[in-house]
């Protein structure tokens, strides 16, 4: 099984910190899971222009291929102006919807107000629903006050990180068992 952690921003470092924390938690308890981090800061991705995704080249093709090769995801975004980043939205637009079908997604968001957690409920979960992905019941929202410099220090948030890590692995493993028992879900 391959888990892809996505830090869906090209600015700041808090989202990346939390995504890494979830991936580290999964690796600590499930070393058999192949874990990869996709930090969007490291890629020069083109804007989606409606063409067939197979025609993109360079970094855009690399990113598309990484997303396609994963079995499940931890997806993180900072919240800007009450919404996900354009970088993450563009990534969703670049990937054919069937890539995400019947795959598990866990969500992380970081922000500057305590109400921004609603973006997970009102934007990320509906996107996952459209893509026919499964979403972990828990998610991690991290306010800027939960950090000391760039280190996550709030115990309650750290517990949510651990819970999300457990849930996505449990869901993915359960889904795999069901798929093997009844055949491909597609």
Overview of the structural elements:
This protein has one domain (2-182): Rossmann fold. The mean pLDDT is 95. β3 (72-78), α3 (86-94) and β4 (104-111) form a beta-alpha-beta unit. It is built from 5 helices and 8 strands; from the N terminus they run βαβαβαβαββββα. Strands 1, 2, 3, 4, 5 and 6 form a 6-stranded parallel β-sheet that branches. Strands 7-8 form a two-stranded antiparallel sheet. The chain is α/β, with parallel strands linked by helices and 186 residues long. The two termini are 18 Å apart. The protein is 42% helix and 20% strand. The radius of gyration is 16 Å and the shape is globular. Its EC number is 1.-.-.-.
For the structure shown, list the relevant keywords.
Rossmann fold; 8 strands; 186 residues; two-stranded antiparallel sheet; globular; alpha/beta; 6-stranded parallel sheet
Strand content: 15-25%
Helical content band: 40-55%
> How does the helix and strand content classify structurally?
alpha/beta
CATH topology (level 3) name: Rossmann fold
Quick one: CATH class? Alpha Beta
The biggest sheet amounts to: 6 strands, parallel
Q: How many individual helices?
A: 5
Categorize the overall geometry.
Answer: globular
Q: What's the number of extended β-strand segments?
A: 8
EC number: 1.-.-.-
Keywords: Oxidoreductase
Protein name: NAD(P)H-dependent oxidoreductase
Enzyme class: oxidoreductase
């Amino acid at each position: 099984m391959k888990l892809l952690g996505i830090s869906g921003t090209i600015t700041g470092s808090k989202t990346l910190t939390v995504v890494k924390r979830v991936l580290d938690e999964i690796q600590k308890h499930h070393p058999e899971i192949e874990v990869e981090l996709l930090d969007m800061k490291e890629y020069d991705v083109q804007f989606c222009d409606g063409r067939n995704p197979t025609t993109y080249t360079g970094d855009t093709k690399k990113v598309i291929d990484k997303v396609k090769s994963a079995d499940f995801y931890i997806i993180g975004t900072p919240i800007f102006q009450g919404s996900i980043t354009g970088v993450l939205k563009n990534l969703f637009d670049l990937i054919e919807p069937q890539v995400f079908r019947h795959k598990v997604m866990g969500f992380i968001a970081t922000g500057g107000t305590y109400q921004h957690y609603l973006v997970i409920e009102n934007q990320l979960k509906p996107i996952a629903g459209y893509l026919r992905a499964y979403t972990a019941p828990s998610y991690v929202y991290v306010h800027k006050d939960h950090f000391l410099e760039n280190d996550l220090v709030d115990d309650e948030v750290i517990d949510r990180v651990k819970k999300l890590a457990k849930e996505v692995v449990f869901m993915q493993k359960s889904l795999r068992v069901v798929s093997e028992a009844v055949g491909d879900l597609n």
